[in-house]
Write the structure tokens for this entry.
Amino acid sequence: MIRLILVFALLTALTYIYLGPTPEDIDSAHLSILAFMALVNILTYWRLQQPWPVTDAEYFFQLLVDLGNFTWLLYVSGGATNPFVSYYLVPLTISAAVLPWRYTWIVAGLSLSAYTLLLFFYQPLPLLQPAMDHSQHGSALNAHIIGMWITFALSTGLITYFVVKMANALRQQEITQASNRENELRDEQILAVATLAAGTAHELGTPLATMTVLVEELQQEYQQQKELGEDLTLLNTQLSSCKKILQGLVSTAEAHNHGQRQAVICTEYVQQLLSHWQVLRPDATYQFSASDSSQLLTLEVDTTLDQAINNLLNNAADAKADNIEVSVGSDDKQLILTIRDHGEGIPPDLAEQLGKPFISTKGKGLGLGLFLSHATISRYNGSITLRNHVDGGTLATIILPAKPAQAL
């Protein structure tokens, strides 16, 4: 649009020159340049109808084309004496507001260089030449042109520096605001889930107590039947685990209120977590490995981290319970925990949505496990990535900041 406005403005100026009170002979160079600018604009309009994204480099190239065409037009129409010379500030301002700073400095340098060269090299346009005695006023004319150049150079520097800083600040502010909005939405969703969990925990207390009493009575009544007794023992163990989980909700809330976390050795912590998880998922089998460096790192944890990792272990077991690979490593004071299953992997249509609430790869899932795991790991200033392994299955990688054991 700006280029189109410029073409019409220049056509109006040329019409005045060629048809005005003191008409000049038509210069084919003027019309050729305007025709070329119009052609470039038509091609640009066609390109914008295509689905390809407009990159910074392409935008920069468009500004360079404008600078080249405009400099060519000024060269054949009076150079720096042409009143349109200040148009150099327009592409510079656009670049400063839109493009990265390195592109803007290039545009600023080229604009200032072109303006400087047009002070000395150009084809005069009689209409723009002052009708005065140069023997008396030549120095005043030169001072006027030099003053125009100094003003342009000062404007170029100010726009390049301050507009670029303001544009970067605005872009950073937009990124921060978007991140804050996402965090607020996530916190609201977590609060809703927590409220639901608290109510559910309260309601589950009574049926769990009833089931525990019944299982204990059944154990006493059928203690002579070995197979049934083993099943009842397993059921009693599972009920005890459910009780501990519900009690953990209360203790975790109290720990959060007091900011309490426990320092643990990374490798020992993961091993204890796996032992407890095995009780809950006796159908699953896993292989565990740990690097020597990870045994020298510590974490400050609470039960929310236990639940986040358990969610990923459960996802792996749900995908395929056999031969889950769990490894603990470290890299530059970071704990790297990987969990790999040998299931079918992540469907492509869900790969970008995993971690959002109510998005699940399992037909029976609620889609909250990964969401809460992401939220918990994020609170620990860590990250979770899930991807399909090259040899099949899904690989979940948790990265958490850790400390050397001797630092605590």
About this structure: The first strand starts at residue 262 and ends at 265.
